[in-house]
Amino acid sequence: MKRLIIAGMLCAMAVQGGLLAEDMDAMWGQQVLKLKAADAERGQLFEQGNYAMFIHWGLYSHIGNLYKGKSYYGIGEWIMNKNMANIPVDEYKALAAQFNPVKFDADEIAKLAKDAGMKYIVITSKHHDGFAMYHSKVSKFNIVDATPFARDPMKELSKACEKYGLGLGFYYSHNQDWTFPGGGNGPKQTADGKNVDFKYYYENKCREQVEEITTQYGPIAIVWFDTPGRIPREYVEELVQIVRKNQPKALVSGRAGYGLGDYVTLGDMEVPNENVEGIWETVDTTNDSWAYAWYDNYWKTPKEILHRLVACVGRGGTYMLNIGPRGDGTVPELAALTLRKAGEWVKRYPQVVYGTDASPWQHALPWGDVTVKDTTLFLCVFDIPTGGGLYLPGLKTKVKCASLLSRRGKQADLKVQTRDGWTQIQLPARMAEKMVPVVQVELEAKPEVDPYWGIDPSLETTILAQFAQVTGAKQESKKWMEKFGEWKHVVRVWNWEKSGKASWEVDVLEPGYYSVDLTYAGEGRIVWGIDIEGGEHIQNQQNSSHNYQRFPIGWINFPKAGKYTVSVSCLEGDLTEASLKAIHFTPVL
Ligand code: JFZ
């Protein structure tokens, strides 16, 4: 499966807490998103600043997933939902009287984004709960009028962003409004018992609020609409027009609906495995929840953050990483710490992240990932190979020179050799960079790469089922929620016929034995077979689990250097449920 079609991919359904993934898909209108070329001026933001801060902060942050003494697990901004604490509208609205984020410090937050190496901030001006985090004249359910805090934090943040030279964007939930009559998934009646529909909400709140956020806060960089669901098209058209009229330079997110936005947002927390054309972003969490959840201590490490950032830029996109401030306005210390640590690396090598293009390999390599500026490659080494040999498969363009980057610019040239279509760069035994070393490679022309899978001679090589040629089995993407609202994505090959096959063309530089593992999910014991065309066959039985897990199959021999077709088949067991995610090769001798 070459070149993923994001919009039209088949999605399997997973039931979670009574909510079908299928329903959620329809609600979110993911199917209407299309890749769209950037409008020259509006696209600049993404071209130059491929790293941004997302902030989920609202009345729900005050709850922090602890309600009436009970903890709820899932995305905090959905705490009202029936799958979470199921809070009645009036009860939720009454909470505003207790919301007093006196420790909110816009300057501190903008500075954190700046220190992290981020170029703009997108913050929730109103989420699905309907509570405006700014001074709204059309709804009293806002942070100035309904809380003891009585300040407009969006005003403060817009000043701070200006001071630090950051762009500011507003998230606005245009369809869902759970507390305003007629809003998506909201009450169907007004306080005086009148039945109303979406039009009522749209005309009395939504349209006016979008006018407000696009006129009261100076120039804004993005309006981030979300979850369009079944909102009629004419409303989205009008909202986009309002943004164009008031903020001609602002981008409109793809989740506005009907393909009317300027760019695509991939599935939440989804870093794509293959280059994606057009203008797009991945939105991701620093821990598991968007909004603050008191127990959520599972932070991405600085290295993981950098890995995901470089992967997004290397796939051709933008990375927007979220923080969820507490109800008192403070940012969880470990979120700030991990962002700042990652930011130190971004500041050492800004040329690797900003204004760079996608990797000519189109996917990650065993040791890391690549970004490109014209005829320069930046190799970001996340896993340092023992022996220091960094292998580049299939690079057709001639290398002029390679060197390790350091804070002070380039260091001494590294030794570069080529053999059988592979380029090998020798890393020094000691490197000053302790986080992620970067090798700068100067080429004679723009990079061109042969599209085959190299089996790395010194590191484990993982090839995803997503990239296999498949016959007699189904190759499908699936997403599911781990905790409520915490999305996971996989492309798997499943539903095997007896003769079914998933194959990859690979290129071997060092002949010999490689240990082969498979990552899969399934039901009970499964016998997998692995074949090299015109060569060896191995097979083995292993157990399986409902989660994707890695199991060893055995050693396989590549007798000489060169190209091979490797295939996996499912021989015995529950062939329907056996779901292959990846194959792994590790050199053993
Ligand atoms: C939405 C919101 O419901 C959520 O609270 C959060 O703000 C997040 C950033 O966006 O959730 C979505 C929207 C779309 C998808 C997944 C979660 N999607 O298309 O995969």
Task: Summarize the structure in words.
The chain is an alpha/beta fold. 19% of the residues lie in helices and 31% in strands. The strands form 8 sheets. The chain has an 8-stranded parallel sheet. It contains 11 helices and 33 strands. The N terminus is likely disordered. It folds into 3 domains: 140 residues, Jelly Rolls, CATH 2.60.120; 278 residues, Glycosidases (TIM Barrel), CATH 3.20.20.80; 82 residues, Immunoglobulin-like, CATH 2.60.40. The longest helix has 16 residues. It is globular and about 80 Å long.
What's this model, at a glance?
The protein is α/β, with parallel strands linked by helices. The chain has eleven helices and 33 strands. The longest helix is centred in the middle third of the chain and has 16 residues, at 198-213.
Keywords, separated by commas or semicolons:
single chain, 589 residues, alpha/beta, Jelly Rolls, TIM Barrel, Immunoglobulin-like, 3 domains, 8-stranded parallel β-sheet, 6-stranded mixed β-sheet, 31% strand, binds 4-nitrophenyl 6-deoxy-alpha-L-galactopyranoside
Write the layout of secondary structure elements.
Elements: E1 11-12, E2 15-16, E3 19-20, H1 21-28, H2 40-48, E4 51-55, H3 59-63, E5 66-67, E6 70-71, H4 89-94, H5 106-116, E7 120-126, H6 153-164, E8 167-172, H7 198-213, E9 222-225, H8 233-246, E10 251-252, E11 264-265, E12 280-285, H9 302-314, E13 318-323, H10 333-348, H11 350-353, E14 368-373, E15 376-381, E16 389-393, E17 399-406, E18 409-413, E19 416-419, E20 422-426, E21 438-443, E22 453-455, E23 461-464, E24 469-471, E25 474-481, E26 487-494, E27 501-508, E28 512-521, E29 526-532, E30 537-542, E31 549-558, E32 562-572, E33 579-587
Parallel strand pairs: 1-25, 4-7, 4-13, 7-8, 8-9, 9-10, 11-12, 12-13, 22-27
Antiparallel strand pairs: 2-3, 5-6, 14-15, 15-21, 16-20, 17-18, 17-21, 19-20, 23-33, 24-27, 25-26, 27-32, 28-31, 28-33, 29-30, 29-32
The structure holds 4-nitrophenyl 6-deoxy-alpha-L-galactopyranoside.
4-nitrophenyl 6-deoxy-alpha-L-galactopyranoside binds next to loops.
